[in-house]
Amino acid sequence: FSNFFVSPLFTPSGTSREVQAVDSENSKNLTADVRRRLQILKALADPNHYYSTFTTGNVKTLPVESDVDHVRDALLAFHRYHYRPENLVVVIVGPQSLDTLQGWIVPRFSSMKAAVIENETEADRRIAEAAKAMPNFSHDQPPPPYRSAFKKELQGGTWPVLLTVKPVKPVRKLVLMFPMPSTHYFADQDPVQILGHLLGHEGKGSSFASLQNEGLITSLSAGSRVSGPDQTDRKS
Questions:
Q1: How far is it, in rounded angstroms, from Cα 179 to Cα 181?
Q2: Is the pTM of this model over 0.85?
Q3: Among candidate residues 236, 206, 209, 212, the one with its CA nearest the CA of residue 224
Q4: How far apart are CA 158 and CA 177, in angstroms?
Q5: Cα(first)–Cα(last) distance of the chain, in Å?
């Protein structure tokens, strides 16, 4: 397992097989109602916001059959940029003593070195540029300004917006979404989680119990639909 981080192979054949697996996963998502609703949200989002991008991939966006070397170069550049010792956290749990666990892990990961990019390629430049699209997620950094992917002017200038979606499966669902600033930096005091707990409670006297008694719902959930360093979209 550690060799994946220390000295990954990334062979052309392995890259092609993995892209086929990604494409298969994406094909399965095409008939999944939750993924279809996600793509509708992305289509409504600000096209200049990272949230609007295609986040899985398929054989069209990763054309290994026609240009496997290009895809592999991008994969290697991504690994060089992100898979660095200073970004790594290894968590191991076992009944053995701490000294034993440490003795197993340290020798295997200590040989991991940050890649030195001597001759920067086009793939290296594009990966570095793409990494800037999303604000820093580190808790030790000041939070970035609020930047929602959803804006009134993109939906005719007025809210609320009503969307009706024809599902693949026989299901009736009402989803309410509220764009708001990020709560990522509140840690264990996240107000969205607190609201989600209160609204999602299913005990006696809860919203769920009252609506269920009226025969209006069979399930209810609440929480974050989108959670990032610069935005949160609360869903009920």
A1: 7
A2: no
A3: 236
A4: 15
A5: 40
179 to 36, 147, 150, 218: CA distances (angstroms) = 20, 10, 7, 26
For residue 168, the tally of other CB atoms under 10 A from its CB is: 11
- Number of Cβ within 10 Å of residue 77's Cβ equals 22
Average pLDDT over residues 116-128: 88
Exposed / middle / buried, residue 104 (Cβ in 10 Å: 0-12, 13-18, 19+):
middle
Q: pLDDT tens-digit profile of 162-203?
A: 889 999 999 899 999 888 888 877 777 888 888 888 888 899
Sorted by sequence, the CB contacts under 8 Å of residue 147 that are 6+ apart come out as 49, 135, 230, 231
Q: Within 13 Å of residue 12, how many CA atoms lie on the same side as its CB?
A: 8
Q: Kindly report the number of other CB atoms within 10 A of residue 2's CB atom.
A: 15
- Rounded CA separation 228/183 (Å): 8
Long-range pairs for 115-123: beta carbons < 8 A, 24 or more residues apart: 115/79, 115/80, 115/84, 117/80, 121/73, 121/77, 123/70, 123/73, 123/74, 123/76, 123/77
- Say yes or no to pLDDT of 122 above 80: yes
177 close to 233: Cβ distance less than 8 angstroms: yes
Q: Are strands 232-235 and 177-180 parallel, antiparallel or unpaired?
A: antiparallel
Whether 221 has a pLDDT exceeding 80, the answer reads yes
